[in-house]
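Incident review: delayed structure delivery

Summary: a single-chain prediction request sat in the queue longer than the usual turnaround. Root cause was a stuck worker, restarted by the on-call engineer. No data loss occurred. The affected request and its eventual output are reproduced below so the record is complete for anyone auditing the incident later.

Affected input:
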Amino acid sequence: MMAAIAPAMPGAVCARARGAARRESARGVSGGVRARVARVARGCAGVGRARGGGARERRAGGLRAGAGAEGSRDVRVRAANDDSVTEDAQRGPSLDSILRAKSGFTKILCANRGEIAVRVFRAGTELGMRTVAVFAEADRQSTHRYKADESYEVGPGKAPVAAYLDYESIIQCAKENGAQAIHPGYGFLSENADFARRCEEEGIVMIGPRSQTLAEMGDKVIAKQKATEAGLPLVPGTDSATSNVQDALKFAETFGMPIMLKAAMGGGGRGMRVVKQFSELEDAFKRASSEAATAFGDGRMFLERYVEAPRHIEVQILADAYGNVVHLGERDCSVQRRHQKVVELAPAPNLDPELRQRLFDDAVALAKHVNYRNAGTVEFMVDKEGRHYFLEVNPRIQVEHTVTEEVTGIDLVQSQILIADGQSLADIGIKSQDDIVLKGFAMQCRITTEDPSMNFAPDFGKVEVYRPPGGMGVRLDGEVVVGSRVSPNYDSLLVKLTCKEKSFEATVQKMYRSLNEFRIRGVKTNIPFLMNVLQSETFLSANFATDFIDSTPSLFKLDSYIDDTQKLLNYLGDVAVNGSNHPGAVGPAPTCIEPPVPEAKKSLDQLKNSGFKAILDKEGPAAFAKAVRNHKGLLIMDTTWRDAHQSLLATRVRTHDLRRSAPLTRSALDGAYSLEMWGGATFDVALRFLHEDPWRRLELLREEVPNIPFQMLLRGANAVGYTSYADNVVQAFVHQAKKSGVDVFRVFDSLNYADNLMFGVDAVRNAGGVVEATICYSGDVSDPKKTKYTLDYYVDLTTKLVEHGIDVLAVKDMAGLLKPRAA
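Output delivered after worker restart:
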């Protein structure tokens, strides 16, 4: 019978393994986990016997050889039939023994998604652990789940975000799959004291502060009380949170304006408002409280005097379970937009050394006062006079932790895991504050799928191209690959770019090069905006504060970005249309002929009060329809101003260009039935791509063409979109279209759905427009074998429309199926 095989482990680790075996037995954890811990414990016992009671091997920062120099060797114990024990002392240390020497955990779970989940998995894997991912049903294709050894769905049937907040499901997943510890990442459950308490009750290690600490630091009011007890300076503010707007009004009367409103249980900028005018306070309070209640389930607010344009400085702390606390330097997070950090730096540039030391001392003092454990951040704001005020404690890993790692060389996530496993700061190589040495300068830019040109509207879709930068001092934290899908359900953070150099100026230079090297297609990003930030004189002077972005409008003047593929397509298009016109080109020369523009034969005055438009304006839709029926000959409905440039030019022709063509259009088409010049694509493109007012387009073109009726396409309840809108929305839309210049409304439904058609007919009739009801033709009414779309089908549909009250009937042959005989 073969005995369990265990690598050589230092005595301290062996003791932890044996203790873990006893704890797991008491907790009632699954047999597989108990068996693994027991094997480790038995292996430790065997190693202890093989060493003959040698000295303990653990020392701060590493291992040393014990008696007999056996501590660094992979001792494999085998029991033969005669129970003899042999030792293979010739083999060097295995990778597994090196990894497993650091931690007693064998499997950890990350209760998060995206880049922070991948960050945790990498740290765990480097420590020799198996890693477990969780995912929501809507997030099943997310890359993070494939970076772990195992992945499981949580929160089945719940909304995309709610699934990641279902901590009972997550705890159950950890227990069923043998995870001894859970890392919450940032966001979601990272500051949820109830989650931490449930982990403690279930015997699962929460990699972070204790539940009591989370409860105290998560409530900003209690956190401020603790800060006062520890001697930290505070901005004047309320002692307790309130949901009563009258309390806010009384506070403003006492301390004056401006005032900052903050959600008592919030973070990340949600539920936060700056109010500068007393008259705006009541409305702002109600809005912020409602936002906080929606985001955090608690609408209570606290109030404080607003410090104008401070710097935002935060101190990274690391504490073990034995009362030892160190700081890992500070970060400058002053480059913010709407209270969301954009660029983070470590250390903070142009910070007075004495002020820096006061920040360090206060951060460590507060951590010791609350008996803090694990990693955390103490945040301060610094006013223009150099006075600092306590803001809050973030009891979790921060998005921007990477800059601290780069300048200190300390892996914060690994440190979190090891401290949660019971190790002291000395065990992980930090004997005192003197062991923390900052080298160089680091900067992080958060690359998000937001469109700066559209007020940072989130974008989502498939990443078609992803070519990241690289080189010395360039770090990427993310999960993006070509083909990744950016979901609208979650935060827009795509990847974190961190650069390190010897100085602030050199770091800016490296960051700018790295951003410029990025190639991302398929989704919009904020990279052009970030490059503008790095070029700003204020930023380069390192004298920026939290008002930097809002007070620098030049940051939003974005250059149109064209990548290599677009440049190539532009070149090919230019050659195809205009010929070869560059040095060394072959082929026909570019044409220099400008097509002649015909002169309009009739002036604007001659065309007023003429044609079908005049009849419609004077006598109404019924008279217009009668005049059309009485007309001898063919009438033209021209689509140049809608369908022609929609098909050929993606509807990108501007109002300015249409107006230039208007004189010839009104003259050449005088007497036409209509100009179809408005519809879904024209409205959407004018608004979103041309940045024009589509209603103003109608008004301007109506001034230029007074003699021809304007016509639009109306998709019944869908209006000009591809989804159903509320009835009152469609009715208001039709009224506004009629008011702005549309005369004839071609109402259609591609499936000939009578209810949708009749709703559109009613909306147009109520607005006073001409109702042109449309039946969409399909099949072949001349073929007796076709029994679904027969002549009777179309006659019955037409009869219903006529009885409902229409002015004109149109037959739309969408697929080109209407044969002459059938017509």
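Verification: Residues 182 and 206 are 5 Å apart (CA to CA).
Action items: add queue-age alerting; document worker restart procedure.
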